[in-house]
C-alpha cells in the first residue's frame, strides 16, 4: 500500500484524480508512487542557478523508473550576497522555511517519497530536517560545487573577494587588483568552491547515506552531475519499494561517521549547528560535546580552502568523499555497518574504493601524515560559554591568546573598525547580540574575519561571537557562544578592555573578571528590546532554541 493511495484510490477520490489528470496523470499512473521533487532552483545565486536542469533530469528518470514526479519549489537565501547586510539575518531562518515548505508539500499531498535538489548552504540541512520529520523514503541531490576562478595562475573562490577587501584597506593591493579578483572569483554555476558550508554539508549527507557516492564533490557544470541526479531518482523509486526510510539511516553511528568526515576534510563550523538540529529532529541523542570527543581521534587529512591550498573539484579528482571514508574506515574511525539509501552498508558501498588515494596528488593525505593531528573544530567552554562555543582553528599556528576585549554590538560596527585599522595585534574582538534570538538569525561573520586575514592579522587577533561564521572563515574564530547575549549570557556582560583568554589547546573561553564583579554586572543587566516583533524574524526569535541545541524552531 502506498501513502499516496489516500488521494488516488477509491470512488470517493474521483475529484482528487480529476485534479491529478489535469497535471499529467493517466489511468495507469494512479497506482504508481508519487515522488515530490523539491526544487531549490532560483537565479538569486550561482549556487542554485543550475538546479532546474537537475530537477528535470530527476523528473524524467522518475517516470522511467515507474514513479510519478510532482515538482514544487523551495526558497533560498544567498549567503554570499546577503553577507554583511541585514539580509543575512534571514539565512539561518531560511533553513527552517525550507524544511517547513518540503514537509508541508509532501505531507499535504500524501507523497510517497521526496527527492530534494539544493545548492546554497541552508538548502541541505533544511531538506534533511524535513526528511527526518516526515520519515518517508528520501534522497538529496546536491547542485554541485563551482569551479575555481583563475587569476595569475592562482585558484580563486568568493572568499578571495572578501579577503581582498581587507587587503585593499591595509594597502596590500590596489583597486585594479580588487576589481580583477571580483571579476574572476565566481566563474559560473555552483556552490562556493572550497570546503565551505555547502560542500561540508553535502559531504555530511553523502556520509549519512542519503545521497549517492561521489555526488557531494561533483562540479555543477559537469555532465556527471545531471547523470547523478537521474540515478538518484532511480534509487529513490527502489527505496520506496524496499521501504528504506531516513530514520533507519540516521542512527547515532551515522552521525558519528558524518562528524568524523567533517573533521577529516576540514569542514565548516556550521556543520555543528546543522548536525545537532538534524539529529534532534531524528530523535538521536547527540550533543555538542560529541564533536569534541570525535575531534580528539580524527585528524585533518585534506588540504582544502579556506585555510588550505585546494578546492572541492580537486578533492573530487583525488577520490572524493568515498576515498576519505575509505581511509577512515580502514583505520577503525568509521562505523562500516551503517546503511545507505541504496540498501547497502557503508562498508559495501566503499568495497571498490582504493585503500590509498592516488600517489600523484596531495589533496588527500594518508592518516600517517595529516595536516593536523586532531580535528579543527574545537568545542570550547568556560565562563564565557557555559553551554559551549565552536572554534575553527585551522590555519592557526598557536591557538592561544589573552588580550583586551574590543566590544561591538553588531557585525557592521565591528567591520567598520577593522577597515579603519582600529584592531591591533593581541586584541580579542567580541561581536555580540548576533545570536539566534538577539540577531535574530545568527549572521555569519565572513566579512570581519576575511578583513582580519586580509590585513595580515590571522594569528594575532581572536574573534568571538554569539553569531556564526561562514565556512569560508578561518583563523582564531569562536562562534555559537552559548548562552548568547540576548538571553543573559556572559558575553553580554563584557566591557571594553576586559581581559579575555582564548585557549583552544585547553578548550577554554574565559572572561578574566572576578565573580563579584560579574555578579554586579549581571544584576544591572536587563533583557534587550527585541529588534523585530513581527514578521518571520519576530516569529523566529520567539521560537528558536540556543545554538548548542542546533537553533531549532520546532521544540516540543
Describe what you observe in this structure.
With 556 residues, the chain is an alpha/beta fold. It has 21 helices and 14 strands. The strands form three sheets. Strands 7-8-12-11-10-9-13-14 form an eight-stranded mixed beta sheet. Strand 13 and strand 14 form a beta hairpin. Helix 3 packs across helix 10, helix 6 packs parallel to helix 13 and helix 7 packs antiparallel against helix 8. It is globular, with a radius of gyration of 23 Å.
Task: List the topology elements.
Elements: H1 5-8, H2 14-22, E1 34-39, H3 51-64, E2 68-73, H4 79-82, H5 89-108, E3 113-118, H6 123-134, E4 138-142, E5 149-151, E6 154-156, H7 158-169, H8 175-184, H9 197-208, H10 223-242, H11 246-249, H12 252-265, H13 270-282, H14 288-295, H15 312-317, H16 320-330, H17 346-349, E7 377-382, E8 385-392, E9 400-408, H18 411-419, E10 428-431, H19 446-454, E11 462-465, E12 476-482, E13 499-503, E14 508-511, H20 515-524, H21 535-543
Parallel strand pairs: 1-2, 1-3, 3-4, 9-10, 10-11, 11-12
Antiparallel strand pairs: 5-6, 7-8, 8-12, 9-13, 13-14
- Low-pLDDT windows of residues: none
Relative helix content? 25-40%
How many helical stretches? 21
Largest sheet: 8 strands, mixed
Specify the overall morphology.
Answer: globular
Total count of strands: 14
Assembly state of the chains shown = single chain
Query: How are the strands ordered across the major sheet?
Result: 7-8-12-11-10-9-13-14
Average the pLDDT over all residues and give the rounded result: 96
| Straight-line distance between termini | 31 Å
Rg estimate, integer Å = 23 Å
Strand content: 5-15%
Instruction: Give the helix/strand class.
Output: alpha/beta
Amino acid at each position: 500500500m502506498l501513502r499516496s493511495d489516500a488521494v488516488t484510490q477509491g470512488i470517493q477520490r474521483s475529484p482528487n484524480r480529476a485534479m491529478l489528470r489535469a497535471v499529467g496523470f493517466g489511468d495507469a499512473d494512479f497506482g504508481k508512487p508519487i515522488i515530490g521533487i523539491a526544487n531549490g532552483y532560483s537565479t538569486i545565486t550561482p549556487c542554485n542557478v543550475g538546479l532546474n536542469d537537475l530537477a528535470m533530469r530527476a523528473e524524467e528518470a522518475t517516470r522511467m523508473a515507474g514513479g510519478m514526479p510532482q515538482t514544487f519549489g523551495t526558497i533560498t537565501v544567498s549567503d554570499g550576497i546577503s553577507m554583511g547586510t541585514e539580509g543575512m539575518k534571514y539565512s539561518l531562518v531560511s533553513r527552517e522555511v525550507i524544511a517547513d515548505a518540503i514537509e508541508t508539500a509532501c505531507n499535504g499531498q500524501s507523497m510517497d517519497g521526496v527527492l530534494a535538489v539544493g545548492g546554497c548552504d541552508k538548502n541541505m540541512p533544511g531538506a534533511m530536517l524535513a526528511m527526518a520529520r516526515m520519515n518517508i523514503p528520501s534522497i538529496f541531490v546536491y547542485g554541485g560545487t563551482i569551479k575555481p576562478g583563475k587569476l595569475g595562475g592562482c585558484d580563486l573562490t568568493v572568499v578571495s573577494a572578501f579577503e581582498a577587501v581587507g587587503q585593499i584597506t591595509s594597502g596590500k593591493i590596489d583597486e585594479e587588483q580588487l576589481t580583477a579578483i571580483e571579476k574572476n572569483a565566481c566563474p559560473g554555476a555552483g556552490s562556493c568552491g572550497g570546503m565551505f558550508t555547502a560542500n561540508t554539508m553535502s559531504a555530511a549527507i553523502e556520509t549519512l547515506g542519503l545521497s549517492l557516492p561521489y555526488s557531494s564533490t561533483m562540479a555543477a557544470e559537469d555532465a556527471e552531475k545531471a547523470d547523478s541526479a537521474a540515478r538518484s531518482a532511480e534509487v529513490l523509486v527502489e527505496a520506496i519499494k524496499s521501504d528504506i526510510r531516513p530514520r533507519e539511516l540516521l542512527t547515532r553511528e551515522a552521525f558519528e561517521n558524518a562528524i568524523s568526515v567533517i573533521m577529516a576534510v576540514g569542514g565548516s563550523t556550521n556543520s555543528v549547528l546543522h548536525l545537532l538540529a538534524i539529529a534532534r529532529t531524528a530523535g538521536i541523542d547527540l550533543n555538542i560535546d560529541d564533536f569534541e570527543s570525535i575531534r580528539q581521534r580524527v585528524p585533518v587529512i585534506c588540504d582544502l580552502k579556506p585555510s588550505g591550498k585546494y578546492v572541492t573539484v580537486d578533492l573530487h579528482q583525488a577520490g572524493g568523499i568515498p576515498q576519505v571514508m575509505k581511509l577512515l574506515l580502514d583505520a577503525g574511525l568509521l562505523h562500516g555497518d551503517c546503511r545507505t539509501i541504496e540498501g547497502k552498508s557503508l562498508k559495501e558501498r566503499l568495497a571498490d574504493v582504493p585503500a590509498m588515494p592516488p600517489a600523484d596528488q596531495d589533496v588527500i593525505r594518508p592518516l600517517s601524515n595529516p595536516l593536523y593531528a586532531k580535528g579543527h573544530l574545537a568545542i570550547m567552554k568556560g565562563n564565557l560559554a557555559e553551554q559551549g562555543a565552536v572554534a575553527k582553528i585551522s590555519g592557526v599556528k598557536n591557538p592561544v591568546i589573552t588580550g583586551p576585549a574590543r566590544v561591538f554590538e553588531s557585525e557592521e560596527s565591528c567591520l567598520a573598525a577593522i577597515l579603519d585599522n582600529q584592531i591591533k595585534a593581541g586584541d580579542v574582538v567580541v561581536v555580540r547580540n548576533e545570536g539566534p534570538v538577539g540577531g535574530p538569525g545568527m549572521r555569519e561573520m565572513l566579512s570581519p574575519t576575511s578583513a582580519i586575514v586580509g590585513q595580515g592579522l590571522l594569528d594575532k587577533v581572536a574573534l568571538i561571537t554569539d553569531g556564526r561564521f561562514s565556512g569560508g572563515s578561518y583563523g582564531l574564530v569562536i562562534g555559537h557562544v552559548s548562552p548568547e547575549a540576548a538571553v543573559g549570557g556572559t558575553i553580554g556582560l563584557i566591557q571594553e578592555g576586559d581581559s579575555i583568554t582564548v585557549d583552544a589547546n585547553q578548550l577554554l573561553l574565559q572572561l578574566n573578571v572576578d565573580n563579584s564583579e560579574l555578579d554586579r554586572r549581571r544584576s544591572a543587566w536587563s533583557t534587550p528590546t527585541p529588534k523585530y516583533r513581527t514578521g518571520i524574524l519576530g516569529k523566529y526569535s520567539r521560537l528558536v532554541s540556543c545554538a548548542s541545541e542546533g537553533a531549532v524552531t520546532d521544540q516540543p
